[in-house]
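Course assignment 3, question 2. Fill in each field.
Student: A.L.
Task: Predict the tertiary structure for the chain below.
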Amino acid sequence: MRQTVLVIDDSLATVRMLGEVLSDLCDVQVATEAAEGIALARTEAPDLVLLDVMMPGMDGYEACRRLKADPRTCHVPVIFVTSLDEEADEAHGLEIGAIDYIVKPFSVPIVRARVRNHLELKRHRDLLESLSSLDGLTEIPNRRRLDEHLDQEWRRCARHGLPLSLLLLDIDHFKPYNDTFGHQAGDDCLRLVAGALRDCARRPGDLVARYGGEEFACVLPGVGGEAARGMAEALREAVADLALPGAEGGTVTVSVGGATIVPDLNTNPADLIRRADDNLYQSKHLGRNRVTMG
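Answer field:
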């Protein structure tokens, strides 16, 4: 997946030039005001920000402070690209959290090299972060990564007025399975179920994660109710197709509860999680191995 650079600069000439010289390295997003750039950074999670200092209204220094103070953007590296060329200006920019400082008029080869190097460093940091976000047993994303992804997609869908669906899945009769076949077999069952669920989530924004114990979750950004139900049935069938012998006869199955909402920036995913969990309870109560949406 291509990385994204956000350019925040009130100079249209600079914005155009940076867009052109970086187009083969990354996707480029643009904001011509600091407040607009901060909002974009919060919802779009760029890999790098190129930030001008001298802008009307909020200047780049204040914008950098706000980016670094916000947990949603504090890990996004910032490079100042500015005409301020005094040593004190550069020192101030680095002190408030920037990782680099480029003076205008800039050299295109130097800008490209520095952006490429910082994007590569960001890619390596993201790789290390992703390894720490995997569940050790099933090797799919863990609860921490699920929460981060759900929050990120909540904000993105809120910004664009898109639906967001969440599916919660629970392996039926898992405790008797462990009691009958042993914990090693239980671990093998969890790994196989996780793999089957992961293979169903093919879109870039979809995420299957281990929710806890024998529960899993699937985040479906931009997916409405009917499509989410179709995905829920596909996940349920993928587990049934494993044909793992069950502890009480038949095969291992999952119950699924799902919910869909169009988020807004003044709320959080808690209500979506609660509704999906309530529907999962209904699937269990109604006989298991079924999907309940709402």
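Instructor remarks: The CA atoms of residues 44 and 156 lie 6 Å apart. The mean pLDDT is 94.
Grade: pending
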